[in-house]
Amino acid sequence: MALAHVHHILPLTTIVRERVLPVKGKVLARLNQRVSPTDVVAEATWSREHIFLDVSRTLNLSPDAADKLIRCKVNDRLAAGAVIASGRGLIPKIVKTPVEGRVVAAGGGQVLIESGESRMELRAGISGNVVNIIPDRGVVIQTAGALIQGVWGNGRVDTGVMINLAEKPDAILNAKRLDVSMRGSVIIAGQVRDAETLQAAAELPVRGLILACLFPSLLPMARDMRYPIVLTDGFGAMPMNSAAYKLITTNVKREATLNAETFDRYSGARPEVIIPLPVSSEPAPPVDVETFAAGQMVRLRRPPAVGMIGTITSLQSGLTTFPSGLRAAAANIKLENGEQLLVPLVNLEVVG
Amino acid sequence: MPASLVEGDSLLAVDIGGANTRAVLFDVVEGTYRFLASGSAPSTAEAPFKDVSEGVRNALENLQMVTGRTFLGADRKLITPAQADGSGVDAFVCTLSAGPALKTVIVGLLSDVSLESARRLAETTYTRVVDSFGLNDHRKPDMQIDTLLRLRPDVVIITGGTDGGASRSIHKMLEPTGLSSYLLAPERRPAVLFAGNQKLDDEVKELLGGVSSALHFSPNVRPSLDTEDLEPAARELTSLYLEIRKRQLKGVDTLESWAGGYVLPTAYAEGRMMRFLGQVYGGARGGILGIDIGASAAVIAAGFRERNSLGVYPHFGLGENLPALLQYTTLENILRWSPLDIATGVLRDYIFQKSLYPSSIPATKEDQVIAQAVTREALYLAMQTAKRDFPRSARVPKPGLLPFFEPIIAGGGALGDAPTPGQGLLLLLDAIQPVGVTTIILDRNNLLPLLGAAAARNSILPVHVLESGAFQSLGTVVSAVGNASYGSLIVRARLVYENGTEARADVKYGSMEILPLPVGQSAKLTLQPQRGADVGFGSGRGGTTTVSGGAMGVVIDGRGRPLILPDDPVRRRELIKRWLWTVGG
Questions:
Q1: Nearest-CB residue to B345 (from A3, A236, A323)
Q2: A283 occurs within a structural domain
Q3: Of B248, B278, B306, at which residue does a domain stop?
Q4: A50 to chain B: which residues are within 8 Å by CB?
């Protein structure tokens, strides 16, 4: 019994997603509230920088003596130039805060002030119902629709109507294909091979890019883009897997959320495309683990035929020796083009 | 060893790696402990499982199929101790390397003293040093606080001050750690290891005790300026590592209860075993070297007379961290090891794609060639990094080269999986570039760390297993150090077998020769280096030594040290193909 990872490419499923603030904040959404992707569900403020004032050292006093001279306490809001402490004598040394801020720690002859307060708004990211509130942190949203998992994301989230610029799964998108009519849309493309195209998409701006793959050399730039980028298959020059291509392109002109989360194998966070769909009853949630079996649709993770979709026709008993010389448990796979291949199980993931 | 001295307890040892979890059974056969069987399954530290014990249970089920014995009850809990019906096991130990490298900040005083010790200490386990703060740091305390808040380290290692020495400076260095921890939510606070001036322990407790997720103390890593003692601090770091892993990874606490506390980081267990082997076998021809490269990290453990050295390098691991390799080398440098003409773009795509699926394996020949080139470069870089911390007194034939080691024991997924012994050996020779005469042993079943963990429970078991032939000897390697023009004679070798017959080889510079010597046999090897080459007896000096056989016999490597590959890619690939052919392809 060999356990299989599952790569979700599902036309209709129940999708439950946690949306949480990175720091403590205030949850604005209510339980059972219907939210749209741009709704702010929680907010927080945090400080960009801190100012450390060592009163004891500046005034050349013991920490205890310095504490007696410190005029502020924790949570005091201070204006720039406010006096923190002043020494003794005819011409006393004065310690002032150089910036406006809030005292977060005071004691031991020292004061720590936070400044440069920023406000952070957490948007719902997907349309759906708030099914749980995580106190001080965020919400859990449930929706129904198509789910297409990716393998890489640039950390951004946005929603827009999908436009297909990939006539075929390995179509290459270039800057010339992008025009003003695509502003605010999510673009479906096969591959991007140059920085100009990423930049042109930013200048429109688009609401997101769904790509099969990207050259690794473009990853740093892709990370800097303000719009989400989801890669469905990997790196280099490979076509979009047929299951994802079919599902995405049949939903063109629908609104899709690109949750281009960074792939975190430990938390399970994965980049994904969510296409909310109307349903009369709650569809089955995705299954995360399967055991390999004949008849399953699978995706190949390594050469040969990397990224291709096939079906398990049978599982090999014992270990199989591959052209690489390695021996591993394997399955017979029939690819969509009819070709038959023997593939190590560890190089397969079930699509479902 | 008389059978009466053997306790007769069966022992299960499990290693949870970044990609795979392996379960190994040791039991008594005819009065001595033996490695009986192993079973493996994919590791389950990651989503959707998020529970390392699930992978352990799967590996144990695999082992049950292999051995026909039962280790898990109907509730999938370990049956311990062994039952009258033969089910279960008497003892269980576990090693762990799965999980992301711990983000670590090191704090010390002088960059070339205490901070250097802190770095070496961090490198004894699976950490990634993300920043360091020292006396010469130009950043103000508030900037250091903001840096710590941004980095959110898992661990802060604080060193500095000789015992009874500097205290005020260290106190100053503690402030950013204390204040930033205070500002973080309790669940995000780092664990702190203080391994500096012991006189400050109480002060550190007062300053950091309430604001760190765990505060550990160890004896000073620098009790005096010219003394470094990492061992006690490394032990403490190990317990801190496991504490953090218990918080991060579900299932570690279950395994700890099965093991009665005998859970160790894999690298630490391997280091412990190398220390033991160093005491037993090391000395005559040099230090002893252990190498392990897998998905989580490259681990280099070396035992010398003076001291031991353990280097754990997650950035040279072959799994999810693989793209980090490109921060230390170039695509061209990796491809210099390839016998096939492979485009840099193909290699770059391989590296990034492999990082997505660390447990995947090469199925095609080209993929395997790329995988081996990457492993060579990662291991080469790990070796070069580890070399910095070898004792200066270690005997080297020439500055910049590796010290003499005997033997070299290599393990880890990437090496154990080499399709042929020859490919495995050549990979090791290219990456490690040993010198002189050494025996190369392949730990195909990755037993070394498991024996290191088992040693704490059963001190006889590792000795028996080591002597039982559970490790595969690849043979004896003679590596000549010297320079000559390609094709000129560099070593004359004569091997006299136990039955009196002999074999000879004239080894030319740039080539390799093999003299057959089967496993279990020994022979007298006489070496006559030419053109001032050093084969371990001194420059230009010959000698005779007893060598033992192995899967590859006696391999004489006349390619020179350091190994310099031709710049011309066609010629280089031809040479690599020839070397591969020599070792059996």
A1: A236
A2: no
A3: B248
A4: 142, 145-146, 149, 179, 183
Q: Is the dihedral of CA A3, A9, A11, A14 positive or negative?
A: positive
Encoding tokens for residue A135?
């106190």
The reply to whether A7 falls in a domain is yes
Interchain proximity A49–B142, CB inside 8 Å: yes
Nearest CA in chain A to B320: A265
pTM of the entire predicted model: 0.93
CB-based contact A340:A334 (threshold 8 Å): yes
Query: In this structure, is residue B256 part of a structural domain?
Result: no
Is A323 close to B364, i.e. CB distance below 8 A?
yes
Query: Hey, CA dihedral for B123, B125, B129, B135, is it positive or negative?
Result: negative
Distance CA A306, CA A299 (A): 8
Residues A261 and A200 in one domain: yes
Looking from the CA of B510 toward its CB, the CA atoms found within 13 Å total: 13
Please state, in angstroms and rounded to a whole number, the distance separating the CA atoms of residues A184 and A201. Answer: 10
Q: Which residues of B touch A235 (CB under 8 A)?
A: 348-349, 352-353
Angle between helices B569-582 and B421-432 (to 10 degrees): 130
Q: Which of B141, B353, B365 sits opposite A324 (nearest CB)?
A: B365
Residue type, B493: A
Phi, psi of B61 (to 5 degrees): -65, -40
Q: Which residue has the tokens 């773009």?
A: B345
Q: Quote the CA–CA distance of A90 and A69 in Å, as a whole number.
A: 16
Sign of CA dihedral B400, B406, B409, B414: positive
In this structure, the answer to whether residues B427 and B543 fall within a common structural domain is yes
Query: B85 and B148: one domain?
Result: no
d(CA A115, CA A47): 6
Residue B211 lies in a domain: yes
Per DSSP, A240 falls in state P
| Per-position pLDDT tens, chain B of length 585 | 433 345 668 999 999 998 899 999 999 998 899 999 999 998 999 988 999 999 999 999 999 999 999 999 999 999 999 999 999 999 999 999 999 999 999 999 998 899 999 999 999 999 999 999 999 999 999 999 999 999 999 999 999 988 888 788 888 889 999 999 999 989 899 999 999 999 999 999 999 999 999 999 999 999 998 899 999 999 999 999 999 999 999 999 999 999 999 999 999 999 999 888 887 776 666 789 999 999 999 999 998 877 889 999 999 999 999 999 999 999 999 999 999 999 999 999 999 999 999 989 999 999 999 999 999 999 999 999 999 999 888 889 999 999 999 999 999 877 877 889 999 999 999 999 999 999 999 998 899 999 999 998 888 899 899 888 889 999 999 999 998 999 999 999 999 999 999 999 999 999 999 999 999 999 999 999 999 999 999 999 999 999 999 999 999 999 999 999 999 999 999 999 999 999 997
CA distance A341 to B223: 62
Which member of A54, A112, A325 has the closest CB to residue B420?
Answer: A325
The answer to whether the CB atoms of A52 and B360 lie below 8 A apart is: no
Residues in A closer than 8 angstroms to B140, CB to CB, are 52
**CA–centroid distance for A320 within its chain:** 38
Domain-located, residue A287: no
Interchain pair A236, B349: CB under 8 A: yes
Closest-CA residue of chain B to A288? B48
Chain A residue with minimum CA distance to B144:
A50
Residue range of the domain that includes B212:
102-248
> Kind of pairing, strands A208-214 and A185-188?
parallel
As a whole number of angstroms, the distance between CA A309 and CA A53 comes to: 61
Q: Least CA distance to A52: which residue of chain B? A: B142
User: Is the ipTM, as predicted for this complex, more than 0.85?
Assistant: yes
Residues B421 and B484 in one domain: yes
In this structure, the number of other CB atoms found within 10 A of the CB of residue A140 comes to: 17
State how far the Cα of A343 lies from the Cα of A350, in Å rounded to an integer.
13
